[in-house]
Structure prediction request, 170 residues.
Amino acid sequence: MISSENSRPAAEGANEKEPVKIILAEDDKDDQELFIDALDEAQVPSEVTTVENGQQLMDSLRDKSQPDPDIIFIDVNMPVKGGKQALEEIKGDKDFRDIPAVMLSTWSHPSDIEESFEKGADLYVQKPNSFAGFVMVLKKVFFLHWAKALLRPAINLFFVSEKNTSESDL
Prediction:
């Protein structure tokens, strides 16, 4: 498990934002780095812990020496225990079910999106093809969806991709 502090204060003094505690479950090291770099570029003050599969994600959540995350990003396709299985365990556990869970996938197949929605995911994000796209998507997740969509989203707000995110949304 890798822990990375990506804290960038929004302002000095009393207005300084508390960093968002994030667990990123992603088996691809390049995608982990891309995610963390995009968060930094999007100016999301954060503390990111990375794990490489669904089993490590569950172990990390159950580790009482660590605080619960504010949000979890889960790659759908991972070895050992896949993202959908981990999501099902998270949403079935009274201690973790209220933590927002965002599914990440290169796929945008309607059945995958629907299944993730039914299992309780809060958002389904199609991984962008570019760094700029990843920055835009993360801005949308954190600045537009945090307040409204993560409070049990409507299906039309559930799927986020680079194609349905524009600069004018931000």
